[in-house]
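Lab meeting, action items carried over

1. Structure of the two-component assembly. Owner: GW. Status: complete.
Input record:
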Amino acid sequence: MTSIEHAAALLEEQAPPAENAGERASWWQVAPMVAVLTLFFGLPMLVVLVVSFFDFDRSDIIPAFILDNYVELFTREVTLRLYASSLKFALIVWAITLLIGFNIAYFLVFHVRGLLVQIGLFLLCTVPFLTSNIIRMISWIPFLGRNGIFNQALQGAGITNAPLEFLLFSDFAVVVAYVHLFTLFMVVPIFNAMARIDKSLLEASRDAGAGRVRTVFEVVLPLSRTGIALGSIFVITLVMGDSFVVRTMSGGQSASVVSALQNEVAALQYPPAAASAVIMVIIVTLMVAGILRLVDVRKELAR
Amino acid sequence: MTQATGSGQVEVASVTKRFGESVAVKELSLTIPHGAYCCLLGPSGCGKTTILRMIAGHENPTTGDVRIGGRSVVGLPQVERGTAMMFQSYALFPHRSVLDNVAFALKVRGVGLPARHNTARELLAKVQLEKFANRLPSELSGGQQQRVALARALITNPKVLLLDEPLSALDEYLRLRMRGELRRVQKELGITFVHVTHTQLEAIAVADMVVVMAQGRIEQAASARDIFVAPRNAYVARFVGGQNVLSGTVESTMNGTAAVAGDKGARFAFPVGDIRPTRGSKLYGSIRRDRIGVEKVPPGAKPAGGLNSTVGEVHTLENQGSYVKVTIDLDNGEEFVAHVPDDAFFRSPLDIGDKVEARWSASDVMLLDDGPIALEPAAAEARVASGD
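Predicted assembly:
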């Protein structure tokens, strides 16, 4: 989950500058976080960076300064394929979670009357998070399997004659699991951003003659973009950094960049794994930076 | 967009609005003539904003009808009503430039970019903001934002402009300037303005017609002048604030004047015109604060007493420049306010705690229409006819 931590670190940098009067106090306030990040994120990253230039043989890593690990990474045809696959999943899952997340947040903020009901429904959204990711994901298997509940229901209803094969151990299953696991990461920030929209803006839009849909595109969507950006960062970094879901739900047919990296670690090939990790961090950082370029999160949050 | 004459007339016909259990507006009827500047005045929660929102189409009446230019508009979308609303917080789109905010309604109507920007620029010029066209609303001051909101509301050439507490977010200086500005714009455009406010002086300053509301009902709908000098009942007299309310029971009526006995032996004369209230019935009257003379009662001396006077102790003194507001605690525990012209006051100044006697002339007392007054039947009708 290095990518997620990195996103967090990036957001940390985006925090508004301290005011002169309380500057010293605010330095002390950030000090514990700085210490934790330096110790548990900065130093390990440095180690990874150093190791990525080391040489290795069957059993040992040998201190050196060679570019072989990177050269091999960039010349292997499989690298591109893995990144393409991870990016494909990230993009599909991002689009679906955005669509679902935006609609859930919109419903909660603009359609649910009464704060209590709103909070209740919001908590309901988080209930699945009381169980572990793994259990929530594995529970799809008996549902989507060849003789799973879904296939049996379809056949029982006479909609299909034979079980649908693509449901489990396929890209479809991977996407289903990702969407299930990560939609909430989209809902929460968008909900947050939307809740800050002055309701009279919607009325002003209606007053100007815009219909409901037009109002969503002209007013709600642009004013929710901070939330969309933050949610996108969460979802994309989570998908890019995942190995377990893709491996389990595809039945080993698909791999991700991180699962390939894990294989190398398992084979004690630390230097190439480190090189792979460094490239991965750079790519995810660039993606996050791209999102933050599109939406000035800091400015919007200070609004 | 030319409109037929009279098309800006707003009619609220026996409208009731309920929100769940609570009733915001009760069987309310009101006609605002075309081209009038109408203020809905009342304390918060009196239903004035609900009326405005029903005219705008942001709420629908539970029962009753809302008509604009003679046509029922209940259930119609905002565009077909010919109304535009200016929101209390202005509701400017924070992500759009001033120009795009003003042009928004035209964008929604499918007007091309150059055309709508031209129209928006003309309106911005009208409110002296063309220099700020490319700024974001957050980069403007409150007064400037308010003018942007005005320009945005006017871009569709509405027949009726609805203003929800338009001046409440401004500081005193801007508030006074903007209310003059609103009045000027309204005269210039000749369209109907409906302006919701809880500030009495604001309503009286700008409006042709003031509607005083309380608890979902209209207490009085009349010209600004009448609201101030001839309040219909004690509520209006107290709320509008330029009056003191007197009350007592009738002792006798003679030559259009009723002798009324108040608490603690005070006696008033009420001009009652053609009415002949029966002896013992309760009457309410009002006396303008600036028609009262205040005299100090020297310690130990007895107040002169007599008709049309009341005795009390000075509670607060507020110098308002051209007059001094003297608040008197009456012996019966009520509060009585006199506006004493500055020159008269400073000729013989009062102090807090002084015992004073307030006097006025019977002809300045206005009869109020409060409570069930026992009247002789023929006279009751005459009063209704002359009262309105």
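2. GW to write a short summary for the group page. Key points so far: Chain B has two domains: 10-229, 242-367. Chain B touches chain A through 24 residues (CB under 8 Å).
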